[in-house]
Specification:
The chain is about 30% helix and about 25% strand. It has about 190 residues and is α/β, with parallel strands linked by helices. The chain has a single domain, classed as Maf protein.
């Protein structure tokens, strides 16, 4: 465990990332940073999430004076196409319909930066997720809960009905939640 660590600042408005850091028993505060999260040209998924984590770090450094900053960004990729958060309920239905009975990839890029020693690590994790065949009713019922609206790929693997859509996962479960916690922890140790 990390004891007597400097202040940690999670630069993310994701309640799921906050909960994951709480599991590590770390003391931290949360700030929100806004950036344009669109894909640039034919940018590959791993490069995209690392760039987004880096851009969030640059933005966070403008308002944080000391400690360790953690940023992250998660995307869903199906057939080499990035699927972001749904823009409305119709879009959520379209996304979930596309993911039904298929395997997609979840990428999370993250940055860990110690403001005192200027050590920075930017990395990513990739996980394969296979959905079972979803019925239109299941999709409609899920959308009615409002849960898909703030999540990449329009579903959550944790804490809600989206978990029952998943037939198989290959890789880091926590990466799908929004933060590859084991990889993040080992990188935190490297910057302290």
């Amino acid at each position: 465990m990390i004891n007597n660590h400097p202040l940690i600042v999670l630069a993310s408005k994701s309640p799921r990332r906050k909960k994951l850091l709480q599991q590590l028993n770390l003391k931290f505060k949360v700030i929100s940073v806004e950036i344009n999260e669109d894909q640039k040209g034919k940018e590959l998924p791993a490069a995209m999430v690392k760039r987004l984590a880096r851009e969030k770090l640059v933005r966070a450094k403008k308002s944080v004076e000391k400690g360790i900053i953690i940023t992250a960004d998660t995307i869903v990729v199906l057939n080499n196409k990035v699927i972001g958060k749904p823009v409305n309920k119709t879009d959520a239905k379209r996304i979930l319909g596309k993911l039904s009975n298929k395997t997609h990839l979840v990428y999370t890029g993250f940055a860990v930066h110690n403001l005192k020693n200027e050590k920075t690590i930017i990395d990513f994790e990739k996980t394969e997720v296979t959905f079972r065949k979803l019925s239109n009713r299941e999709i409609d019922d899920y959308i009615r809960t409002g849960s898909p609206m703030d999540k990449a790929g329009a579903y959550g693997i944790q804490d809600d009905f989206g978990a029952v859509f998943i037939k198989k996962i290959n890789g880091d479960y926590y990466n799908v939640v929004g933060l590859p916690i084991a990889k993040l922890y080992t990188n935190l140790l490297k910057v302290i």
